[in-house]
Write the structure tokens for this entry.
Amino acid sequence: MSPVVELFKAAFRGYPTGVAVITVCGPSGPAGLTASSVASVSLVPPALSFSVMDSPSARLIASADRLVVHLLGAAHAALAQDFARPGGPRFTPEQGWRYLPTGEPVLDKAAAALVCVPLQRVAVGASTVVVAEVLDVAIGPSDGRLVYHERQFVVDAASLDGAPLHQ
């Protein structure tokens, strides 16, 4: 890889970001992945963006007609890790999922769950940037901060009364 690519990766490894799990109702059942690229885009209409790299779940999410973006808090560090790795447990009853009438899985105890419809999809290299309108928002419990930093999911120690960092 070029020096610029390596420096680019290093720059963003050191940039803490929020953590989300994005879910859809796929043709063979629910699908989802962890994303650290979610950002607000517009208030009118309410819209957000995220990017996904090429994987089976990413292809389903990038092509879905509806999706749910779950903004995660401190209690969901393990869930973020599960959805970040291939073959991790997903959509188990212990994780707290339910399903919307339209089929999308929803994590009721997420800090927020945003039901969205894509407005635009833009291919950029091996990634797809999705801009989606937010149709509905459910605000869940506030349980502290979860960020992705230096290739780790980090729970703010103040959010869990001094609990150690979770990796």
